[in-house]
Write a structure and sequence with these properties.
It contains 3 helices and 6 strands.
Length: about 80
Amino acid sequence: MASTSPIRPSPGNLVCELRQTWARIEISVGAEYVTLLEDLESGSSRRSIYCPLYPLAEWAAYNWWSLRLTRGWRGIPISA
């Protein structure tokens, strides 16, 4: 059951780069949702999260060459 009114925390107290990149993100690998959240009290769930994307972009930039050189991880082909 998908929640129709997800909780959206206020990013007002975050530093500028975190506040400016605040977004809703949904990540899936095949049919599995990495960002699936389940609320046990209400019995609802949602496939996305709200968070700043700056740390994700920073991690991708820092690990770019490692990610590019890793081919066929777990049988998933990576196109050039």
